User: Fold these one by one.
Assistant:
Number 1:
Amino acid sequence: MRCTPSACADADAFAAFALACARQGADLLLCHPDPGHAESGAANVSPSAQFPGAPDSPHVHTAMPPGWTVWPGDEGEGPCCLVGIGPREELCLGDPASGPHHQNHEPGPHTDAALASFLGFSPPGDGRATARGRHDAPIPWQPARADHDIALGFLAYTYGLPRFGIRSAKPRVLPHALLRRYHGMARWNPANGALTLSVHPDAPADLAARCARLLADAPAPAAFTAPSGRAAFTTPSNYAVLPPSPTFVVPTGCIALQPSLDRAGYTAGVREVLRRIRAGDNYQCNLSTRFGLHAPGLDPAALSLHLWRTRPAPFHGLFRVGERHVVSASPERFLRVDAPGGGPARVLSQPIKGTLAFGPGTQHPAWHSGLPGLLAATPKERAELSMIVDLVRNDISADCAYGSVAVARHCATFRVGGAASGLVQMYSDVTGTLRPDRTCLDLLLSAFPGGSVTGCPKRRTLEIIEAGEPHSREVYCGSLLAMADARAMDASIAIRTGWHDAATGRFEHCAGSGIVVDSDPESEYEETWAKGANFREVCA
């Protein structure tokens, strides 16, 4: 189905449709390229011209990264929103609800093999460059031919710990990994307004009609036709324009829960990390705390769509896990792989390090054009990113062609969040070419968990995090992902991410900051507090 392009109306119609689907159990991955919020193109500004002592190199301020970009075969490119409707296959690993003796409780080679089997890939290597030889035969690719073949899901941060010899006993409520394929997959392309529904042959016969009825309640009129090979998905003849459904109502009686590390506890944790850095244990560490609300009336589907409309970010997501929902509004891409035209598979990672908050109550009460340069000119923030870029280069090199890994737009900036308040973030593009004998899953597991939310060296830093944080990170700092085939994937870093439990009414979310040798404990806490604003300001 396709709708007449009209950006504002189409966004409203899609939001209403996605909300209705999510309230009936659908999973969402939502990009948000917002022309009214993100700068168009890139501007080169010399930080040293504005800030004496800054590095004398061009600073690139870009539009917000475009977000989820995953297409089966060679259908097209560009950011998109995906709605997974009616799971037909599911792989859930290490779900605490299955009990402590569940055979897939602890991640390891058997769970890696289960992921590969679910995705239809050959068994993955063990994440080391020696797992398979550099001259092994290429894997025979089988590109996905339809959206309903795409798998959506997440890997929790906890999935990566056993790979580094860490056995965490901290209580969890979410599984280590979740992957699903669906009876129907709706895709919305914000560039041209196209909304399509791909239906699996085994789907219920009335799936397209049920989706059409949901779409009929959207607030903008549209006529839809199905592309060749797709199921027909048209609005009923009695279509009527209705007022948009309420997207989000703050539940009454919300009560803030005690964070796992309050200001005193967090700053003490930063000082302990600094002690370890000075002792030579590591040289960067991401320390987090967990915030929470008692919010029994919270509607996680409405919260997700509300954040998508009001807090722009490239990688929004919503996943239902039993009585719980994972809600993510992440600005950071972990790994993207695509192979345009059937050519070599390109790898892109966009690690973020360096943050500057603006808005009421911050040091910078309003957005102005000098803020990106101010961030890019800060030696401490540049050092944070440079360390992580070096780590990411190492993480992806085992699965990329020799000599193909490179870095572009080092220390570029973009802004994310609302118009009145938000964050300026700094990032780099780390690129490579996937080896023909490797799959997206090989790459994902080799680099997991992402370096920007751990630190370096990774193994030792993971141990320090496990000892210093009293909470389990759950899916926070893991990865939400969409995988079409062995060389088509997009995956986020699951920051700005929380989860709601309908049974207990608790909504919990984490935030953290990267600590290096010249970090100030109070400043790191303020950065962590600012990163939690999405959920704190909307839900409280």
Note: Confidence is low (pLDDT under 50) at residues 1-9, 35-55, 126-131, 220-245.
Number 2:
Amino acid sequence: MPPAQPMPADTDAPIAPDHRALYRRFRAQRFAELVGQDPIVTTLRKAVSGERLAHAYLFVGPRGTGKTSTARILAKAINCTARGDDGEPCDACAACTSIRDGRALDVIEIDAASHGLVEDARDLVMRALTAPSELRKRVYIIDEVHMLSPHAFNALLKVIEEPPDHVVFILATTDTHKVPATIISRTQRHDFRRMTDATIIGKLTRIITSEDVEADDDALALVARLADGGMRDAESLLDQVLAFAVGRVTAADVREAVGLADDAHIGALVDAYVAGDAGAALDRVAEMADAGRDIAQVAAQAEAEARARLLTSASDPPMARRLAPILRTLAEAAGSGAREGRARLLLELLSVESLGQAADAVRPIAVEASRAEAPPPVRPPVASRTERPAERPPAAAAAQATPAASVRRDPPAAEATANPSATPPAAVEAGGDDVAALRSRWAEVVARATPVIKPLLSECRPVARDGARLTLAFPEGRDFMRSRIAQRAGAIEALLTDMFGGPFAIECVASNLELEPLTVEQAIAPTPEDPEAQALLDGVLKITGGELVDAPEVR
């Protein structure tokens, strides 16, 4: 039987459409088609037209901002045989078409992530010494160059510094801090910027028109916002939405294709966090998860909403203080939490943690309201330094009044004072010597604090006051204590208000402050290895007839 003959081709069959991704089909092929990087384009054009090419370039910037496309266009401009006077490649000659189609043997693109060993670098150096086979110059484009090993960088160091005349290196990276300074100093660096939403929308509109598809303006604006300044991310998202949508593309299609939650649901979730309504917040998270929403995207949306509210709350310090820890947790959920699959867990933990934070934020407001309704207190003059020891008990004796057995783990709002019924001492007026007066009576503040905040206050001192704002300074190297006291700001402000009257808003800074002793006992407290200091302390106690009291602290 004779072999079967192949069927003749159907010349009338429609040509299959180009199924390549949008970011590949609409990749810029000439300098004029690059968007959002005008300073870099102008510099490279003038360098090409004026024959002032560098031997090595370093393109730095976020993903999807045109680094690799610019490198290919620069390779075309270097080897184009019909280049314009402005340095623009023709994109039609044999050199340009071979580079565009990936057939040029003298334009070598290397992925450093998979070719980062020292053997690969040595092979590159040996190949760079040979003359180009068909083009004017040989161009090496090394993408993600920060992935090279230290030994590979060392092997390339000399050839990048002094390459042959027929070789140009173009290095691209998203993490410039991982590139050795010895490499950076031998290249001409260009920093690519994130693109604006307007620039991204402009190109997406041209793509939509070319694809003969209709899309709402708010749909394209949402795609641009989700791309976060990356053109390739925007084109990939648009490709995904076009595959999902039927007919005209709407914002609802974008949300459904990407897995976004409605803005109203995100706003309600942030409202529940701010109000400290754990039940409502947990319900919102569960509803969006049951609806199939991407919890990592939900966390990112909630982060953006909380950040927008924080930026508009400059005139409302309590609200700003309330939003700060919420935004911090949301950022963690959208970042490392999303990468590790813990985004939902962090959102649920934030629902519970917001209970105590809400109580802490409400306490100073309640104190201010009660003081506004009460008659102004009588303000006796501030006690002088010589009168202080006789007017109040030592800090250690005051601490003894609150034994460790009576300490309760209450919310921060209940931690203001250990003895709320005590009569407030003389008030401190803002201005003049108010900081000195506060500092001289800081032992009282520490003594009246609850055991939870007592160790925090003993590690700082007031250094400045501007109206209601009181600056507390910590010695350098105690960032942990400084962060803890910032979390207890509401309780400390309420304590200061109860003692001295007037509003307080504290901020914490690190300085070269040396903590002076708060009490006589602290000033002369000996170390076990210092017998002379112990003898001095015994003599002071014998003369004064006093005794030392060990009051345990609860940390």
Note: The chain has a mean pLDDT of 79.
